[in-house]
Amino acid sequence: MNFHVLTLFPEMVMQGLATSIIGRAMDKEIISLEAVNIRDYTTNKHKKVDDYTYGGGAGMLMQAQPVYDAWNAIAADIDEKGRKGRKTRVIYVTPQGRTFQQSMAKELAKEEDLIFLCGHYEGVDERVLEEIVTDFISIGDYVLTGGELPAMVMIDAIARMVPGVLSNANSGETESFSNYLLEYPQYSRPGNWMGKKVPEVLLSGDHQKIEEWRLEQSLKKTKEIRPDLYEKWERENQAYFIRKA
Ligand code: ADE
Questions:
Q1: How close is the Cα of 58 to the center of ligand 1, in Å?
Q2: What's the pLDDT tens digit per position in 76-111?
Q3: Which residues bind S-adenosyl-L-methionine (predicted)?
Q4: Does ipTM exceed 0.90?
Q5: 3-state SS of 144-188?
Q6: b or e along 200-219 (b: 16 or more beta carbons within 10 Å of the residue's beta carbon)?
Q7: Is 63 near ligand 1, meaning CB less than 6 Å away?
């Protein structure tokens, strides 16, 4: 899978993602990442990418032309490699988008290429958004200074859903959100740390009992911390409660 990022801060994106699991996946060529500097596509001699907004208002806006030309270069490059550059989904990361979810990460991981557009200043000229963007996605109800961090968050979440990126083929499936429940607590050695003991059941070797305990813990934690997720799970797992009753 190939990630392409349109940004004013390419080094931030490259450095931020080139470590640990994602970096290893890049080394193994399971995924690729390129960050294209929008500023390289300005046609004015001062290399300016922003201007005042029509109608007044505070702040500057990213102009359409350099964004469009940078996108065009990426699309042409994808085309040249025999894939479909002009049909590649373009995600504009913005607080005005749909909220990013695990289910979206899973869906997007099936794409061969993805292009991210990172905004800055007060946003991007609407006309270029209309022209190139296919998805408007937010990472939550708060405002950051630029789109790079949200793009990196999404790329990390999507990349780890690409087969081969995680060492344990299962670990993307059993964790939180794939079934609406938060994960149960986990323990490693020593069995007694500062007087705190590992729950007895985990030492019992009884796998069924352990599974039951883990589900119970997940349910308890989810009900307490994320009642919204708990309700969703309850609705979709009526059978569990009927069996329990
Ligand atoms: N840009 C600024 N804030 C953002 C957010 N919360 N999600 C996505 N993009 C953003």
A1: 18
A2: 999 999 999 999 999 999 999 999 999 999 999 999
A3: 119, 139-144
A4: yes
A5: CCCCHHHHHHHHHHHHCCCCCCCCCCCHHHHCCCCCCCCCCCCCC
A6: eebeeeeeeebeebbeebbb
A7: no
Q: What's the CATH number where 213 sits?
A: 1.10.1270.20
Do 26 and 140 fall into the same domain?
yes
What b/e string do you get for 75-103 counting C-beta neighbours within 10 Å, with b at 16 or more?
beebeeeeeebeebebbbbbbebeebeee
Instruction: Please indicate if the annotation marks 79 as binding a ligand.
Output: no
| Mutation pick for ligand 1 pocket among 93, 117, 136 (CB with most ligand atoms within 8 Å) | 93
Domain span including residue 233: 175-244
Ligand 1 contact, 95 CB (< 6 A):
yes
